[in-house]
Fold this sequence. Notes:
Blueprint: E1 2-4, E2 23-25, H1 32-58, H2 66-84, H3 94-104, E3 113-117, H4 121-133, E4 137-141, H5 157-171, E5 176-179, H6 182-192, E6 196-198, E7 223-228, H7 239-247, E8 255-260, H8 268-274, E9 280-283, H9 288-297, E10 300-304, H10 317-325, E11 329-332, H11 338-345, E12 349-351, H12 355-372, H13 388-400, H14 403-413
Parallel strand pairs: 1-2, 3-4, 4-5, 5-6, 7-8, 7-10, 8-9, 10-11, 11-12
Helix pairs in contact: 3-4, 7-12
Amino acid sequence: AVSGKYWNLPETLPLGVPLDRVIYARSVDVNAPPGQVRQALKRLAGRAGAKAGPAATMAGATPASPAAGRSALRGLGDFYVNLLNLPDKTIGWFPWAYGAGLRLCRDWRPDLIFASGPPMTALLVARRLSDRLGLPWVAELRDRWADDPYADTAYPPWRLRLDHWLERRVLATATALVTVTEPWAEFYRAKYGKPVATIYNGYDPRDFDFDPALPTAPLSPHLVIGYTGGIYPGRRDPAPLFQALKSLGPLGEKFRVIFCGTDPGHVYPIAERAGVRHLVEVRPGVTNAEALEFQRRSDVLLLMQWNDPREQGNCPGKFFEYIGSLRPILGLGLENGVPATITRDRAAGFFLNDPPAIAAQLKTWLAEKEASGRIRSLPLATREGLSRTVQFELLEQFLAGLPLVREAARSRAA
Length: 414
């Protein structure tokens, strides 16, 4: 496998495969030059200002507005980033990843090239290797690319058009596509007319090898609603839960909502407005192992989705960790999205948006905890078929069944 390194990402997950099976190709930070230019211009401006001194001002010279200068520099920097970060900020990895792929195939010919994005730069590498080596390739889209609705506010219209152009140019050459939910699979089948497999992110069974009948040490005597990860402000909103807690009056004091690894600025102001700031705690980020332990010891796990039809096929990896932990889920957001549907079909919890309905469910959970000291774990059957082991078996079957892959395998055997 060819991968990248030094992308300023926290390395909190175990590799999962032998280190000698991975080639780490170097990369260049294409976003370094704008920062370097800004620093150089600031130094030049400082020197020029020092040379002009107060005499220039008294002589009638009009100094340039610092705010205007900063705005112009910021505009140029944004244009540079939007243009050069195509398809994403790891594009500086492309030439070395391509070279590493060629070296890997120098004395060995695979049946296919499989590339997973994000980063979408990996798909560009796979397409180029496919052209050079004459091999079929498969693109895995763990997130959407040009059709990601979260990109609407992140990029200007001209950049979004570039993304659509590049995506079509790259994915049109793929033998097949893989994505994480059936709504997305249906979308890509219609868009590209190719075979598309739905492979869930799933949970790692090695992380959840425990007996759910054995009680775990509670995080608190309060009923703890736990959340791990970040929040998209304005789109994934804990306000309905906070409003429900406020409506409980004195009963609300028996709850605590704990966020791990979340920006406090995305949580505390909303809790303040609801009047429940004292019931909410934001903790620093933790390792993956610590996050899993936190999930197991929480009474209820909070999942937030954007309450918008465009969110229907979005199903984060965290959701499957929640399922693996066998703790009941309180979901906020789109009530007919994939996480909501799985939660409902497997009796794994509730997706609610109405504060009174949330308050009623919180009372039910509180009564259970006060009666037995804990909220019971979900049955083992809840997570059946959702492990990464099962999902990888489905992926293997899909790839092996592709005609071009079977042909490549026969050619290699001959």
